Amino acid sequence: MFKLLKEVFRTGNATVRYPFAPLPAAPNFRGKPHYDAERCIACAACTIACPANALSMTTDVAAGKRTWEICFGRCVFCGRCEEVCPTQAIALSPEYELAVLDRADLYQTAEFRLASCRICDTPFAPRKEIDYVVALLVQAGLPEALAELRRAMLEICPACKRQSQVSREAGAGGLHQIGVTP
Amino acid sequence: MSLQSATPVNAASPQSEREQAAQLKKTLLQDIRRSVYVFRVDSGGCNACDIEIFAALTPVFDVERFGIKVVPSPRHADVILCTGAMTRAMRMPALRAYDAAPDPKIVIAYGACGCTGGIFHDLYCVWGGIDKIIPVDVYIPGCPPTPAATIYGFALALGMLDQKLKASQYVETGDERVAVNHPRIPYDLRILLEREARRMAGYRQGREIAENFMALLEQDDARPIAQRVTEFLARENDPRLTEIVHSLEAICTGESVGTNR
After folding, report:
1. Are residues A155 and A86 in the same domain?
2. Yes or no, beta carbons of A79 and B161 under 8 Å apart
3. How far is it, in rounded angstroms, from Cα B200 to Cα A134?
4. Disulfide: which of A126, B35, B158, B164 matches B67 by Cβ 3.0-4.6 Å?
5. pLDDT (tens digit, 9 = 90+) per residue, A74-112?
6. What is the pLDDT of residues B78-101, one digit of tens each?
7. Is residue A154 located within the same domain as residue A73?
8. Could you report the per-residue pLDDT of B13-27, keeping only the tens digit for each?
9. Chains A & B: contacts with CB separation below 8 Å
């Protein structure tokens, strides 16, 4: 009996004091994805990488907006979004206290403006993404003035790019030979 | 029996609560003066959630100190804890358990699958969340939720703690620009370093190691890089990290370009 009591006192209390005292998560714990919308370029890489479709992006061309959305209720905390994000806008944090009473509280959204095509004036890509591509070109060694010239090309939508390519080919007489009219 | 039903199979609507039951539930939440009995329903989960629930019952987390007790019959339950994505096979047992529980009852959707269907949300045999079948009061996300997250969810359900997560909307304003990471490191070198670190350490730790290494390269410091790297490695004292960082260093000095991959 005395031996047992001695053992009990030696071991002490193993139970954590959690709800009354904070419990730090273990190192490398994968908790709630922390999203910094100011660093996001709305490139949608995370929405493609997300295996559970917790991340989604919808483009509203009429309003010229793209909306990014995360549902914490569907997230499986794999960290693939963190891996693919080119600007480190999303990263897993050690936060685990995610329980909610209302399902709507599980959602976080961010809205971005789309840049319009220089030719057809249709919104097609996020403005921040185009700016980021120009910055990347500068980092890759292109002089800043030249990179700004490239912007004119970057701000044309894929459909208009194809159209101008076809017209150019047609002008050179390449497509008339196979019976395609632009 | 006709083979074609009028509604699509997955267009289920949750059972509605009676008004009286809703009133009773409010009083149950506010002044429950006894232990809370929990009945656990596995509605098609992978068992990871169940393992975490039992981890919450172990002496380390010990939810029984709050009087939270797992019972073997829904007829004793105050709380129905549902795990799993609500599969076609398990929806009837889950509904029967819900109906069998006496009336002021709280339903907790546990885990990513229970909340929204999780990674299984679009399978043909899955309803995608407990709340498609029965009304849910508390959602505990996580894949699986840790025992601490479980305790937090119960504390929220019983009104002991406040909710931390709130819905948030962000709208782009003004002329925001995103700067490139590590502007002083050439773009091609950055890609090589990130790729090598991920090849050796996996996608999550690899990224972290590459970031630390590039931060070290970018530091404004008079000492040569090799010395700074040696000091960093001595501080971390991890043979695995040493191996990876030496490999990254070799890429920087141009020793191993084209040989390692």
Report:
1. no
2. no
3. 31
4. B35
5. 999 999 999 999 898 999 999 999 999 888 999 999 999
6. 899 999 999 999 989 999 999 999
7. no
8. 666 666 767 777 766
9. 176
**B86 within 8 A of B121, measured Cβ to Cβ:** no
Of B112, B136, B139, the CB nearest to A52: B112
Assign domain B19-157 one CATH number from 3.40.640.10, 3.60.10.10, 3.40.50.12280, 3.40.50.970.
3.40.50.12280
Q: What is the mean pLDDT of residues B24-47?
A: 80
Question: Rounded mean pLDDT of B102-127?
Answer: 90
CB neighbour class for A62 (10 Å; exposed up to 12, middle 13-18, buried from 19): exposed
Closest CA to B108 of B67, B76, B60, B149: B149
Q: How far is CA B63 from CA B34, B51, B55, in A?
A: 14, 14, 10
- Respond yes or no on whether ipTM tops 0.85: no
**How many domains does chain A contain in total?**
2
CA distance, residue A158 to nearest chain B CA (Å): 23
How does the average pLDDT of chain B come out, rounded? 85
Q: What is the pLDDT of residue B159?
A: 80
CA angle B22, B127, A111 (to 5 degrees): 85
Q: Taking CA atoms, what residue in B is nearest to A19?
A: B152
Write the DSSP string, A6-61: HHHHHH---S--GGGS--PPPTT---SEEE-GGG-----HHHHH-TT--EEEEEET
Which residues does A8 contact at the CB level (< 8 Å), separation at least 6?
none
Q: Could you tell me if A101 lies within 8 Å of chain B, comparing CB atoms?
A: yes
Name the average pLDDT for chain A: 87
Distance CA(B204)–CA(A30), nearest Å, equals: 10
A108 shares its domain with A146:
no
Is residue A30 included in any domain, yes or no?
yes
> What CA dihedral angle connects A74, A77, A78 and A82, to 10 degrees?
100
Q: pLDDT-derived band of residue A67, with 50, 70 and 90 as boundaries? A: very high
Q: Determine the Cα–Cα distance for residues B26 and A79; give it in Å rounded to an integer.
A: 38
Query: CA-CA-CA-CA torsion for B231, B235, B237, B241, nearest 10 degrees?
Result: -70
Beta carbons of B81 and B53 less than 8 angstroms apart: yes
Q: Are A41 and A135 in contact (CB under 8 A)?
A: no
Domain around A169: 117-173
Whether residues A149 and A127 fall in one domain: yes
Phi and psi at residue A71, in whole multiples of 5°?
-115, 110
